[in-house]
Amino acid sequence: MTEASPQAKAGGRSRRPGPAAVVWGSIALFAVLFALFTYQLSAPSQPRQHVLVRKVVKRRVVTTVVPTPGESTVTSGPAVSSTQSTTGAAPVATSAS
User: Fold this and answer.
1) How far apart (Å, rounded) are the C-alpha atoms in residues 74 and 8?
2) Does residue 90 sit within a domain?
3) Please, are residues 72 and 83 in contact by the beta-carbon 8 Å criterion?
4) pLDDT tier at 35 (50, 70, 90 boundaries)?
5) Scanning 19, 32, 54, 80, which has its CA 20 to 30 A from the CA of 11?
6) Are 66 and 43 in contact (CB under 8 A)?
7) In a domain, 50, yes or no
């Protein structure tokens, strides 16, 4: 019938390239890619569009509670029982602008 090729007789393996061919092939591929990227960088690029930048301003209102005169104040000593008035401390309103 048909005869098998010499590669099939040797176990079906093809011959690997030598080290010199691999080195020269790698250098050639590097040179081609380097030339391609150099050309892309030197070519005139598309005009850049201006980006609209918005500054986000968040206003926060800070409310400070001012104790009414005559109430006990906070001390740095040990905890002492304090009295609470029925009216409580009212927050001070400030303008937001």
Assistant:
1) 96
2) no
3) yes
4) very high
5) 19
6) no
7) no
